[in-house]
Write a structure and sequence with these properties.
By secondary structure, the protein is an alpha/beta fold. The protein is built from ten helices and nine strands.
């Protein structure tokens, strides 16, 4: 079998509702891709619904990620991947049709170490718009973004993948490590903003359109008290129905 140009890793826990929508957009992006094959891997993080069944029926490779941690799920998917390029996206997202073409073009450049597509929300409100605007200066200043995250496989392995000791914000640390590696090589993080992913607003639907600001106010406490940070992770990510 030829080596895939890209391996797309989708960490998933009980995503039977959202996964088919994502996979529909992945299929379109694969059809538009001019650079070879795209391997799709669903890292099933101990789902109790039909996530694995849906993924397999759609032709995805399904790998088991037993440690209940999104960093571990991403790493499990990456360990099973064969592609020269690794890409990661959340199961409730939707891809832009040109995603794979855009990130491939960026990674052909020696001055790019990796990056992310960025996102737009699936719906807008004043609360969501203001939340979005809070992150924009950070993204512009650092190049650290979200959406579909991409890098070369060899670089993923060099920085050790995602930190499985972290139950949240592991994606930020991953980007920092990738940025540090790029800096040593004279390369940078790239924002593939012409292929922004659509991110789910289900957390806003569940907790309210202004809930992020309540979390921001408590952020120093979460950072200073590890047990509180773990409680936040359980409440917001691991026990909230996701």
């Amino acid at each position: 079998m030829p080596i895939p140009a890209i391996s797309l890793v989708i960490p998933a826990y009980n995503e039977s509702e959202y996964l088919p929508r994502l996979l529909g957009t992945v299929a379109v992006a694969r059809e538009r891709f001019k650079g070879g094959a795209v391997e799709v891997i669903v890292a099933d993080n101990r789902s109790t619904d039909r996530t694995a069944e849906i993924a397999a029926a759609a032709g995805c490779r399904v790998v088991a990620a037993e440690k209940r941690c999104i960093a571990a799920a991403r790493n499990a998917g990456a360990a099973a991947a064969h592609g020269r390029v690794l890409a990661f996206v959340d199961a409730d997202s939707q891809l832009h049709p040109e995603t794979f073409n855009v990130i491939t073009e960026l990674l052909e450049r020696a001055d790019v170490i990796g990056g992310a597509t960025g996102v737009v929300p699936e719906r807008w409100s004043l609360g969501i718009a203001l939340t979005y605007s809070v992150f924009v200066p950070f993204v512009v200043a650092t190049g650290i973004d979200t959406g579909l995250v991409f890098c070369r496989r060899v670089d993923f392995e060099e920085i050790g993948g995602y930190d499985e000791s972290m139950r949240f914000a592991e994606d930020v640390k991953f980007h920092v490590r990738l940025w540090q590696l790029g800096r040593r090589r004279g390369a940078r993080l790239a924002r593939a903003s012409s292929a922004k992913a659509i991110y789910s607003t289900r957390k806003f639907d569940q907790f309210g359109d202004w809930h992020y600001f309540k979390i921001f106010l408590k952020a120093p406490f979460y950072l200073l008290v590890p047990r509180a940070g773990d409680g936040l992770a359980d409440w917001y990510w691991y026990e909230s129905g996701r």
